Amino acid sequence: MKMELRDIEYFAVVAEHGQVGRAAEALGLGQPALSKSLRRLEEAVQTKLLRRTPKGVELTEAGAALLSRVSRLRLALGDVAREVADIGQGRTGHLRIGALPGFVEHPLSAACSALLEDAPNVTLTVTVETTHVLLSALRNGELDLVVIPTTASPHGDLIQEHLFDDEFVVIASVNHRLAKRKRVAIADIAQERWALMGPNAPATHEFHRAFQANGLPPPRITMMATSLFLRDHLVASSDMLGFSSRRVAHYAAPRHRFASRN
Predict the structure, then answer these.
(1) Does domain 168-261 bear CATH number 3.20.20.370?
(2) Can you list the alpha helix ranges (DSSP code H) found in the chain?
(3) Which helix (H) or strand (E) is 223 found in, with range?
């Protein structure tokens, strides 16, 4: 005869209370039902687990050995239950995240910190790449999620969630002659030199679209780079202009000392 987990649990409660009556009350059972459960367990192990005393019941040597193992089993079951719950609620496992360079410092760094504080058993891998590379990795199952602008082409095959609104702005060194003006028209920047991110960057796509939409001649692109830090450093230390999301520009401005214009 096999032991039933329920009978083992009832046995442990009886051992804790030292009386069948109190254990039955704690379990919400009638004494006859609890006594039947204890007999079924003793038949399964083919030995006496409890002996009656004037004060209630006490463990036999076999009962004490079983209770010791039951205690460990309860702890193990508790661990299993917590682990399953953690998996179900996303508090454990490995998460592979992809992001554009401009989103790593903010908001991704803050989100990762909050996640690891709430779920210390989670491990993370963060890949910083272009939108094209990130989307390809996501579709191939190499990444679990990516943080990219939705200005890129629509992705009907992917689940998308809106995180925040942003807009693109022109950035310049605080010492740039245009930074001192109260108003800057788009015609004023048409002949300026530009430092941009790579050709596949969303900001670069939007930059060219803005020039075309306003009937401007092709821009004077002096430098293109995949390094956000390099782009920002060159803009902050020269007369070149840059094109960036407002959020990225805001968090980089104190470090690189550049101004932004709508």
Answers:
(1) no
(2) 5-17, 20-27, 31-45, 61-88, 101-103, 109-118, 131-139, 202-213, 228-236, 246-256
(3) strand 220-225
When the candidates are 1.20.1250.20, 1.10.10.10, 1.20.1560.10, 3.30.70.1070, the CATH number that belongs to 5-87 is 1.10.10.10
**Helices and strands (H, E) in the chain, number of each type:** 10, 10
Chosen CATH of 92-147 out of 3.20.19.10, 3.40.190.10, 3.40.50.1000, 3.40.630.40: 3.40.190.10
Model pTM?
0.57
Q: 240-250 pLDDT, tens per residue?
A: 999 988 888 87
- Per DSSP bridges, beta strands 168-173 and 258-261 are antiparallel
Residue 219: phi and psi, rounded to 5, are -70, 155
Burial class (CB in 10 A: 0-12, 13-18, 19+), 145: middle
Tell me the per-residue pLDDT of 122-163, one tens digit each, with 9 for 90 and over: 889 999 888 888 988 998 888 999 998 875 555 678 888 888
Residue 260 has pLDDT above 60, yes or no: no
pLDDT at 1: 62
